[in-house]
Amino acid sequence: MQAKDVNNTFYVLKFFAILAVVMAHSVYTLIPNDTVVKVFNSFGRCGVIIFFIISGYYFRKEKYENVWQLLKAKLKTIVIPWIIWGLAIYCTRFTSTGLYFNLKEIILWLLGFGTYLYFLTIYILLLCIFQLLPNKSVIQVILILCTLINVYLVAGNVGPYSILKSTNVQSELIYLSTYLNIFNWIGFFALGLLMRKKNIFESINSWDFKYKNITKKIITIFIILLLIVMILVEKGNTYWTNYSIWIEMGFFVILFKVSKLLKNVKYIQEIGKITMPIYLIHFLIEGFIFNKVLPESIIMGLIRPLISVLIIYWLLQLGLFISKKMHLQKLYTTVLGLKW
């Protein structure tokens, strides 16, 4: 694959990833089929994994002289929007539940203790860690193995994670062991970095043997069937089960192949280019759409994530148009972390 094809494929893949994230945060109480709900929940978990892999793929250590320069660059594109929208959602929680403002609660909220913002905390930490680490394949392989092992340890409440069995364990400690545990995610970022370094996509396309196409189709069918079996037999709905990491990677492979087929669809590409602001504000918009505007139904439950992503994209486009007319485009893009 040429660099342009890889970029376009990843834009489409990011569209599927943000769709999965929104799906993970949706409610499916009206869908009567437990198997469908199970598939939706499994698909919803792959979004974060895909974002970390793609982030690793595009990471450039040489782009920044040091960690401080990296953090300075991310202040405008990530940290400022993160704080603004994190506080906005915290305030809606305050008004809807009657909870009082508490500085400690706000900080924990922004860092991702019990909130979807854990992704940004982990993402910034990963950028800093890989800026400091030598760019060596052996280190990346070790980190991939660390994540694989760590996920199984968390899943089985083994070793340092045996505390998760306790009913009296503090919620902060649970989040530090799971969502905010860097070792549960670092391997995916390392995988993306390794994939770029080894030119994995070019290598696969360079395969040249008699039954190449049929072999690829057989492998794809096998992965799909294996994915279905693992989803059906999996117990639990978290990132940390015996099958979770393989389910997530199975979705990555299948969605990558689908993204290759759709890589020239401009509309999907454009949505994939602005997944950060969609991620930041989807809780506000999606909740309003389905609690105040659209009626609840089985059909709406099935297509709810797609409707949410499309409406948020249109609203962002409308906001951009208005900000240009009012000469506020710079402020608008900063608040939302846009790169238009």
Provide tags for this entry.
340 residues, mainly alpha
Please outline the helices and strands.
Elements: H1 3-24, H2 34-58, H3 67-97, H4 103-111, H5 118-132, H6 137-155, H7 171-177, H8 186-197, H9 200-205, H10 212-233, H11 244-261, H12 266-272, H13 275-293, H14 298-325, H15 329-336
Helix pairs in contact: 1-2, 1-11, 1-12, 1-13, 1-14, 2-8, 2-11, 3-5, 3-13, 6-8, 10-11, 13-14, 14-15
Structure in words:
The chain crosses the membrane at residues 12-30, 42-59, 79-101, 107-130, 137-154, 174-194, 214-233, 239-259, 271-290, 302-322. Its main location: membrane. Keywords: Cell membrane, Membrane, Transmembrane, Transmembrane helix. One of its GO terms (molecular function) is O-acetyltransferase activity. It is a multi-pass membrane protein. By secondary structure, the protein is mainly α. The model has no long low-confidence stretch (mean pLDDT 87). It is 73% helix and 0% strand. It has one domain. It contains 15 helices and no strands. The chain is globular.
Count of discrete alpha- or pi-helical segments spanning 4 or more residues: 15
Q: Using the CA coordinates, give the radius of gyration.
A: 20 Å
Outline the biggest β-sheet. none
Approximate helicity band = over 70%
Which structural class matches the secondary elements? mainly alpha
Tell me, briefly, the overall form. globular
Report the strand count: 0
Tell me, rounded to a whole number, the average pLDDT. Answer: 87
* Strand/helix succession: HHHHHHHHHHHHHHH
- Poorly predicted parts: none
Distance from N terminus to C terminus (CA atoms, Å) equals 26 Å
Strand content: under 5%
Count of distinct structural domains: 1
